[in-house]
Amino acid sequence: MLCQLWRARQAPSLPSWWVPSRTLTNGFPIAEFNPNYALFLPANGRPSTFLINPASSVNPDHLSFFRFCGRIIGKAIYENQRLDCYFVRSFYKHMLGRPVTWHDMEAMDPDYYRNLKWILECQDEEMLKALDLTFTIEESDFGKTNVVELIPNGSNIPVTQQNKQEYVQKVCEHKMTSGIQDQLQAFLEGFHELIPSDLVGTLFDDKELELLIAGLPTIDVEDLKRNTEYVNYSSQDPQIKWFWKCLENDFTEDEMAWFLQFVTGSTQVPLEGFQALTGMRGPQKFSIHKAPGDKTRLPSAHTCFNQLDLPDYDTEDVLKAKLKQAVCEAHEGFGFI
């Protein structure tokens, strides 16, 4: 749809670097994610999901490389080609011109996100004071620790109950935006040479953009079933049998991709199959937990743990309807837990 709208809108004057061959897009994941280029880093707990390396300036040509990466991804979208690459959620939002939030930190570094969440939820002033936090952040630069002030005179401003929300906001803003601003700008300059910013941001959300770039995954339900753990359920419970029947017979290819996003946060299937699925603590199989309480509630998911909380519905029809509703609402922007 994007390609059709773009071509209907105007016929682009292709820049001199344009290569009609598909070899560029096919080679992108191998070359640009090579650690020798220092452009991207694997996300914590997601070794095949990437984020911009804030220390990429160690490569003197890093901005040229980022601009080239943007052109390659723009070219792939324009030609309706797929790339074998996945990025953290905040990166897709930057491509769309959408604001990032502190919740997007979860995909970058789940442990760090959990610490920030604890700060926000802590109501004990003395405990918060004991952390001795100020409006600064420490960054490691090849063995050297640099202290960055998040606001003017930040090293002299303690974090308190009154300003902790601003602190979390500034930390996340630095890590996901301002701390990589030059790299982002270079990437987006290349990307927007092919894909206008005012077009892509109106057509897709971040989850749809991931599917547009990486394509629909091939999901082997039997492989997923073999690598699933159950908590307060067994494989012989009727709810579990209904669940697998629903995935196998009632979900479309699109809905299967949305389901994978719903429970793992990404459409990516590990190359080694679901036995190699990872979470915030390393290897983490997909798990289905019996959700206690109200049977009218929707299933929910914890993407850091590849976990589905499934109420013990009374009928197969109810389970199918509730599961589809949860997956579709999450895809439409209601979000993950």
Automatic annotation (TrEMBL):
Pfam families (alphabetical): HECT
Keywords carried by this UniProt record: Transferase, Ubl conjugation pathway
Top-rank taxon: Eukaryota
Start and end residues of each HECT domain: 33-337
GO molecular function, a single term: ubiquitin protein ligase activity
InterPro entries for this protein: E3_ubiq-protein_ligase, HECT_dom, Hect_E3_ubiquitin_ligase
GO biological process, one term: ubiquitin-dependent protein catabolic process
UniProt-listed SMART domains: HECTc (SM00119)
UniProt-annotated catalytic positions: C304
GO CC field: cytoplasm
EC number: 2.3.2.26
Catalytic activity of the protein: S-ubiquitinyl-[E2 ubiquitin-conjugating enzyme]-L-cysteine + [acceptor protein]-L-lysine = [E2 ubiquitin-conjugating enzyme]-L-cysteine + N(6)-ubiquitinyl-[acceptor protein]-L-lysine
Pathway linked to the protein: Protein modification; protein ubiquitination
Name the UniProt record assigns to this protein: HECT-type E3 ubiquitin transferase
Highest classification ranks of the organism: Eukaryota, Sar, Alveolata, Perkinsozoa, Perkinsea
Gene that produces this protein: HACE1_15
